[in-house]
Specification:
With about 375 residues, this protein is of the alpha/beta class. It contains 12 helices and 16 strands. Helix 7 packs across helix 10 and helix 11 crosses helix 12.
């Protein structure tokens, strides 16, 4: 079997390495150095653009699965290009566009697409979808998630393992969340609150546009996602935004300045961790039930793989396998939460993540006879 991964960055390389254990794996990227690093794992590299249909077609035409791991700004074009070729694809590109708009194109071309299948969006959606499928009514959905350096250094107290421009763009997107059953819009970086997380300490949480497809697929009275950072980060980024450094014109320049400062450097001792809390509460019959999942994942010292790359790349690689195995068997574009009600799919994803050391701790709380 053959898998093609579009993007040889830190996350794309994790997806490729994972798939290479049982697929002939090819990676497409314009960065020759990144491609050469993967040759040691028996992974073939092809220098090409992920949005160049002519260059891409001969690479993907015999692929059993494609995985997209490109910057968000080209994600939608990449996805539509692959869909137009009628291929199966699992994608993590954090595109600003609504990927569900490609559903008709996918059905016309017989393509199977699972998009936003990383950690958040991705596993956050998957877990919310699972809980929602087990409840009669969803009352509250709360998602807290962040990728952080284990040893924060001022002034930003932040490091990245992927595109700096994607992070900055996230700080500018209008946020949608649900309050009292209505969709509300607000600015990113707003809704600031402090949270104590065991084993990590005091963090701050603020709104980002992380719900994405959940706003349309899950009916809840209240629902939000907040990004976790060390205290003080939000105020600095608000200042950058307020003076125009994060707008579309200046964002690439700002990203080029910040990337050398923010880039995770394991050889210099940098380590990262990923935190996620997903809590979904609602009614089941006469009972009020709360489902809660917690994740605290750290840099893998044995493999040298960043936590954020692991927790983002592994869900994509696992879902790619699920697609190949026929666990998604009808053409169309799917959000992760739309697949989580299936017991076989849910069990497969959670087991495979645990095997790779990404272990979500689940807790269920039941308040009996809530309606009486």
């Amino acid at each position: 079997m053959k898998a093609v991964v579009l993007g040889a960055g830190l996350v794309g390389s994790v997806i490729a390495k994972d798939l290479s254990s049982d697929f002939e794996t090819v990676v497409v990227d314009l960065n020759e150095d990144a491609l050469k690093k993967l040759e040691n794992y028996g992974i073939k590299g092809v220098k090409a653009s992920a949005v160049d249909a002519e260059a891409l077609r001969p690479v993907v035409e015999d692929a059993d699965i494609v995985c997209g791991a490109v910057p968000g700004k080209i994600g939608y074009k990449m996805l539509s290009t692959v869909i137009g070729m009628g291929k199966k694809i699992c994608d993590i590109s954090f595109m600003p566009e609504n990927f569900k708009k490609l559903d008709v194109l996918a059905k016309e071309n017989g393509a199977i697409v699972v998009s936003d299948m990383g950690v958040a969006p991705g596993m956050s959606n998957f877990l919310v979808g699972r809980a929602a499928s087990l409840l009669d009514e969803v009352s509250d959905v709360r998602i807290y998630v962040g990728g952080l350096p284990s040893n924060p250094k001022p002034p930003f107290n932040y490091k990245i393992v992927f595109s700096a421009e994607d992070v900055l763009e996230e700080y500018t997107r209008t946020v949608r969340y649900v309050k009292d059953g209505a969709v509300v819009e607000t600015e990113a970086l707003s809704g600031l609150e402090d949270i104590d997380f065991p084993g990590v300490g005091r963090l701050e949480a603020f709104f980002t546009d992380g719900l994405r497809s959940l706003v349309d697929t899950v009916r809840a009275r209240n629902m939000f996602e907040k990004t976790l950072r060390y205290p003080g980060h939000a105020d600095i980024m608000k200042a950058f935004r307020d003076i125009g450094l994060l707008n579309e014109k200046h964002r690439p320049f700002t990203a080029s300045l910040l990337f050398p400062v923010w880039k995770m450097n394991p050889e210099a001792g940098d380590r990262d961790l990923t935190i996620m809390v997903v809590e979904v509460a609602g009614k089941k019959g006469k009972d009020y039930i709360t489902y809660r999942w917690e994740l605290l994942d750290r840099f893998d010292e044995m493999t040298g793989i960043h936590s954020m790359a692991r927790t983002t790349g592994f869900p994509c690689a696992i879902m790619a396998r699920a697609i190949v195995e026929g666990k998604v068997d009808e053409s169309g574009v799917y959000a992760p939460e739309e697949l989580a009600s299936n017991d076989d799919m849910f069990g497969f994803v959670m087991r495979e993540l645990a095997v790779r050391g990404v272990d979500f701790k689940e807790r269920v709380t039941v308040e009996k006879s809530y309606m009486e």
